[in-house]
Amino acid sequence: AVKGNFFSHYLTQGSYVGQDRLEFLNTLPIDDAQLQAGNHNEEPVTISGMVFNREYAVNVNGDLKTIIYMVSWNDGVNRNISFSTIRSIRTF
Prior knowledge:
The chain is an alpha+beta fold. The chain has 1 helix and 4 strands, in the order H-E-E-E-E. A 4-stranded antiparallel beta sheet has the order 1-2-3-4, covered by helices on one side. Strand 1 and strand 2 form a beta hairpin. The protein is elongated, with a radius of gyration of 15 Å. The mean pLDDT is 92.
C-alpha cells in the first residue's frame, strides 16, 4: 500500500509537470525558437524530493507541429509519462 501511495504521488507530480509545460509551449507563437523541430532538453525539476527529468520533441508534418512532452523519474523503477498536442502552422 505504501509503495502504491508513493507511485501515485509521483505520477501525479510528473503529470502536473508535463501538463503545465505542454500548456506553456502551446501558448507560444508557432514560430518561437522553443517550437523548432527536433528534441529539446529542459532542466530537471525536484518535487517532494524526487527528480523529474523533462524533455520534449517537436515534429513537423506539413502544416502541423506535434509537440510531445516527456517526464521521467526513478523511484526504484524507471518511470515516464508523456503528453502531446498538435498545432497548425497556418493562421486562419
